[in-house]
Amino acid sequence: MSDDLARIAERATQTGQLALDTEFMSEGRYYPLLCLVQVAVDGRDEQPLIGTIDTLAGQGPGPLLPLLTDPKVEVVVHAGRQDLFLIERAWDVRPSNVFDTQIAAALTTTTQQSSYQLLVSQVLGISLKKGESFTHWDQRPLTAEQLKYAAQDVEHLLHVAAVLHDRLRSAGRVEWAREECRLLEATSGEERDPEEVFLRLTATTRLTPAEAAIARELAHWRESTAREQDRPVRSVLPDRLVTQLARRSPKSVEALRKQRGVGEGISRRYGNQLLAAVRRGEQAPPVHLPRRPEQPSWFGPLTALCDALVRARCEEQQIATEMVATRAEVGEIVLETVQGRPEPQNRLLTGWRRDIVGEEVLDLLRGERALRVGENGHLVVDRLG
Asked: pTM for the complete prediction?
């Protein structure tokens, strides 16, 4: 394997490209377990040179490691957020100069979540077999079928990237793709923020400030315990028990055991720790959870109108709508603009997104543009005045 990686590293340096993919297992764990890394480069005989790195067997990237941050080598991935995170955790390196084919495809078609299998079929006309999609990648030895499946995930990746590069150049969107991929590089980490988890968990609850303080302690304890034990968070304590225990505030293991859903297992394994978290919450300052304000009557219709404009422009430009803005992001702009507040920090109002439709959304809300139905049902945007 080391000889293969040396040849791949040499070829990647010559061609300036390296395809990368991973296989992992996330079931029953807090962090996904990286099991296999596949890499590929263009070969001299038009056949890709493919290598696999068995991380569970202690294999590392060897000569490939410096190439992952070499500005002269483009690292090609597909839907690579998870891959980058796993590589960073395993090898303590964050790949740079990334080109994500899913992002590139979304900038040249109206489909956002193109699977690799679908993209290869659409771009190259090649059908991939996906028989090992749900395989146990943590079991050894790997079968020939598993290795074949893993290899095909990078076998055509550089060819797909080449076609998408051409499409981006033709559409004048190379810099758009670079901008989005740089953002992917900067946000590749997927560490869970306990405070964000707590706020999502309690977003629709009616906890009092005192109860919310207990729920926060329980949520933070659950997160750290799951991380230390490498277990799924909900296997430590289900979501509903976080808020239930915050409301009931049990004072003993016996009282804890009587809570519906706790059971003997949770109380035996974590009883004293749970009670300690409850006590910390009782002694902590009250937590006033943010409440979602009632929206004005005009909010829904105006958001729908602006969202229609965004979708129409995306269809016209052949860009996946999700790449430009979500409905929630559109709604934020509607609310702030109509109420006369400063522009929000919103991706629709930055960079290329603002150029293709963000500014028009603002004009529409200011009464400077109007929408009407044109030929064949297409929306037409008219400038007023």
From this structure: 0.89
Summarised one tens digit per residue, pLDDT across range 180-228 is 999 999 875 667 899 999 999 998 889 999 999 999 999 999 999 999 9
Classify residue 143 by burial, with Cβ atoms within 10 Å: 0-12, 13-18, 19+: exposed
The partner residues of 50 in beta bridges, in order of sequence, read: 40
Residue 344 CB contacts under 8 Å (≥ 6 apart), including other chains: 332, 333, 336
Give the torsion through C-alpha atoms of 174, 176, 182, 185, to 10 deg.
-90
Q: Is 22 left (phi over 0), alpha (psi -120 to 50) or beta?
A: beta
Find where tokens 């990686």 sit: 5
Helix, strand, or coil (residue 369)? strand
pLDDT of 42-71, one tens digit each? 976 678 999 999 999 999 999 999 999 999
Class of residue 274 by CB neighbours under 10 A (exposed 0-12, middle 13-18, buried 19+)? buried
List the one residue out of 299, 320, 301 whose CA is nearest residue 311: 320
Residues whose CB falls within 8 Å of the CB of residue 282, separated by 6 or more in sequence, listed in order: 210, 213, 214, 249
**Is 77:86 a contact under the CB 8 Å cutoff?**
no
Neighbours of 71 (CB within 10 A): 8
Please, what are the domains in the chain?
A: 2-186 (3.30.420.10), 194-283 (1.10.150.80), 299-383 (1.10.150.80)
